[in-house]
């Protein structure tokens, strides 16, 4: 049942719900919490004739009205959508340069009564190559940049170019990203792989066959922390025991587990054989977008797994293709990153943890099943249903202490079931942002990726 919203006076509104909704405050501070009904009614059949809507669908290339409606709610890609943000887009996100101009009706002022925002416009340049982005940033061509350039492999270059690029380097708050995270296709059309991937012993064997210390030493100068893909250290949901579960390098035990499963060696004792007699070979769909060193991580893992008889073929692809194939369950295993939760970023909001939609990387068909109330997708096993029970209960739990305890249960389940394999947690030294020296009022440490906490309307350029 939907909640109700009542105006009390010009500055006060009241939300009412039929059941507890304690996370409403978290929703309200998110960037897309409110949408303009007076504008969006024209795209909804409850308020506009379907003939008019079909005409707009045809103009914009949509077959379903709900897709048109969803597209029009994305104000970042819809210059005509009314909004109350500090800057308003003047063109769409697929343009080489997207321009945002200051909103003259923005509702905030500074402590001296000056109208915010200070900046008249923002230009967002579209760069598909991370190397080009890094070069532009270190050459001083951007005012502020962290996304796609942060990370230990780039740290030395970034620090060396501070003077010539006329910028400073500031710290970012940790998001607790796990790099090189491996996702299994639990819905594989190959019945042999499907059964193997769903066997927890197989996942454990692959995890303990990864030499995480080698990965940290070779690619991160020893600073990256071997860890499963769980919450950031220092967050309310972090537990050292579970972060370290199945991360100790033990190829002997890994081999024993594969023997126990019944995966025999070939006659040369080089590779394992599947139950159907074929060589066990996995194709790893590697996301090239992030981390930049993802292919290098997977190359080391490939060599690690070869020692236990598992052959891996690495297939690097760009982000969009990776997402399409993973959400469609058209992969065998896939590798990217994972962010379960960090200080100020609850696992309830993470798109990587609970299978509430088909976009969930580790189980898209189970996510589809939950999202459609069982009408589509694939019915999940009991453990996954229990995970979603925790999610639904946590959403309605008023006590923050009890909600943290519930989410810790979810973290524990994730660790013990090993639905994904974590590799290394991002090092604190990798959390940085390039900021031009004349670009001021930028907080340090920067709450990376959480715009409301940065108070971007107060950023200004010093003349």
UniProtKB/TrEMBL annotation:
Superkingdom of source: Bacteria
Xref: InterPro entries: SBP_5 (IPR039424), SBP_5_dom (IPR000914)
One annotated GO biological process: peptide transport
Domain Solute-binding protein family: 5-335
GO MF terms held by the record: peptide transmembrane transporter activity
Bilayer-spanning residue ranges: none
Protein name (Swiss-Prot/TrEMBL): ABC transporter substrate-binding protein
Organism: Aerophobetes bacterium
Organism ancestry: Bacteria, Candidatus Aerophobota
């Amino acid at each position: 049942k939907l909640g109700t919203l009542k105006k009390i006076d010009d500055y006060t509104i009241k939300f009412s719900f039929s059941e507890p909704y304690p996370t409403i405050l978290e929703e309200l501070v998110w960037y897309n919490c409110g949408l303009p009904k007076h504008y969006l009614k024209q795209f909804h059949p409850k308020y506009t004739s379907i003939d008019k809507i079909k005409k707009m669908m045809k103009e914009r290339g949509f077959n379903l009205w709900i897709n048109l409606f969803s597209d029009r709610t994305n104000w970042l890609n819809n210059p005509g959508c009314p909004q109350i943000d500090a800057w308003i887009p003047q063109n769409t996100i697929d343009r080489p340069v997207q321009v945002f101009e200051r909103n003259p009706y923005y509702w905030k002022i500074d402590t001296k009564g000056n109208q915010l925002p200070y900046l008249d416009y923002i230009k967002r340049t579209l760069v598909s190559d991370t190397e080009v982005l890094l070069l532009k940033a270190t050459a001083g061509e951007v005012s502020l940049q962290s996304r796609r350039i942060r990370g230990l492999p780039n740290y030395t270059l970034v620090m060396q170019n501070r003077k010539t690029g006329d910028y400073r380097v500031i710290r970012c708050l940790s998001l607790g990203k796990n790099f090189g995270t491996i996702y299994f296709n639990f819905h594989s059309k190959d019945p042999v792989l499907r059964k193997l991937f769903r066997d927890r012993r197989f996942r454990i064997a692959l995890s303990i066959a990864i030499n995480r210390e080698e990965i940290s030493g070779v690619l991160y100068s020893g600073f990256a922390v071997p860890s499963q893909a769980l919450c950031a250290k220092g967050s309310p949901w972090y537990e050292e025991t579970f972060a370290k579960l199945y991360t100790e390098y033990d190829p002997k035990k890994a081999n024993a587990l594969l023997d126990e499963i019944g995966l025999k060696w070939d006659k040369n004792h080089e590779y394992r054989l599947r139950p159907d007699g074929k060589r066990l070979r996995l194709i790893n769909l590697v996301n090239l977008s992030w981390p930049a060193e993802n292919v290098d991580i997977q190359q080391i893992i490939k060599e690690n797994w070869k020692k236990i008889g598992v052959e891996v073929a690495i297939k690097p692809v760009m982000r969009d293709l990776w997402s399409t194939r993973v959400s469609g369950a058209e992969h065998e295993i896939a590798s990217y990153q994972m962010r379960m939760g960090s200080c100020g970023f609850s696992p309830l909001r993470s798109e990587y943890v609970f299978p509430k939609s088909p976009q969930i990387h580790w189980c898209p068909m189970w996510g589809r099943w939950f999202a459609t109330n069982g009408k589509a997708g694939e019915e999940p096993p009991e453990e996954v249903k229990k995970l979603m029970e925790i999610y639904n209960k946590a959403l309605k739990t008023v006590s923050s202490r009890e909600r943290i305890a519930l989410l810790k249960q979810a973290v524990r389940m994730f660790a013990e079931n090993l639905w994904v394999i974590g590799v290394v947690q991002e090092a604190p030294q990798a959390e940085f942002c390039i900021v031009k020296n004349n670009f001021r009022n930028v907080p340090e440490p920067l709450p990376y990726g959480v715009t409301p906490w940065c108070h971007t309307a107060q950023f200004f350029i010093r003349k």
